[in-house]
Amino acid sequence: MTAARAVWSAAGMSAPVAVVTGASRGIGKRLCADLAVAGYDVVCVARTRRAAPGKLPGTVDETAEAVERAGRRAMAVGVDVQDEAAVAALAERLYAEWGRCDVVVNNAAVAPPRPALDDAVKRWRLAVDVNLNGPFYLMYHLCPRMAAGGGGRVVNVSSGAAVTPSFGRPSYTATKLALEGLTQALAHELAGRVAVNCIRIDMAIWTEGFDATLPADFDTSWFEDAVIMSDAVLWLSQQDLAFTGQILTLGELRRQGVVRPPTRAGRA
Questions:
Q1: Domain boundaries, the chain
Q2: Rounded to 5°, angle at Cα 104 from 98 and 106
Q3: Of 47, 45, 103, 38, the residue nearest 75 (C-alpha)
Q4: Pick the CATH number of 17-199+227-248 from 3.20.20.140, 3.40.710.10, 3.40.50.720, 3.90.1300.10
Q5: Which residues lie closer than 8 Å to 193 by C-beta, 6 or more apart?
Q6: Following CA atoms 112, 114, 116, 121 in sequence, which dihedral angle do they give, to the nearest 10 degrees?
Q7: Which entry of 95, 137, 140, 172 is annotated as an active-site residue?
Q8: For 142-162, how does the pLDDT look when each residue is reduced to its tens digit (9 = 90+)?
Q9: What is the pLDDT of residues 86-101, one digit of tens each?
Q10: 95 included as an active-site residue
Q11: From CA 229, how far away is CA 26, in angstroms rounded?
């Protein structure tokens, strides 16, 4: 399977719509571009609207431009997923302007690098608000509308850190594990109406943000390309609504042939 596989081609019908958070760079940006190639109109959600000196490259508007270059509609939305009112307004705008939502990818996340007990409490709250509350707000405000419109799919993005207490970032581990639990609980609540699944990233994927946390001489040549996440998300978007409540690793999806063979995107 490749990320470019088309999911929509029927003349006279509106294209499916995907919402992707954390869309200004990294995995989120790649997901938006590949979803567009596959036939989705894409709502690109991120905080970063303008490039700034000293900040990582990439803005949500640049991602939206990439979607449009692929021939699809793009909606660039500068929203912090911690802000429930802003997420609610996003849902209202989406349905007022486009009238549907088929796929939600909760990709935005933060990973405070210090041990929890040595860090400020506000950093713990930040991780909870972005990594757990943010996905809940998206599901809270979009899933009922998706269900009323005939169904949809949610893909939450977790990490191998969820089951690795020694990872060294306790707030990230705790919130990702909680997100997996929330995935399964809402899958049960929404059974038959909206499929809710989770991809646990169990291999290193090169992104600008991850790279920025590593020493300059760290060998990332073995890191994977973010396209493997597109493979997984597009596959999940095409599964029956009965396929829900699953916590899937990229490794097992590769063994099943869903995710392409090893890619290399890092620097030597």
A1: 17-199+227-248
A2: 135
A3: 45
A4: 3.40.50.720
A5: 143, 146, 147, 151, 241
A6: -60
A7: 172
A8: 999 999 999 999 999 999 999
A9: 999 999 999 999 999 9
A10: no
A11: 11
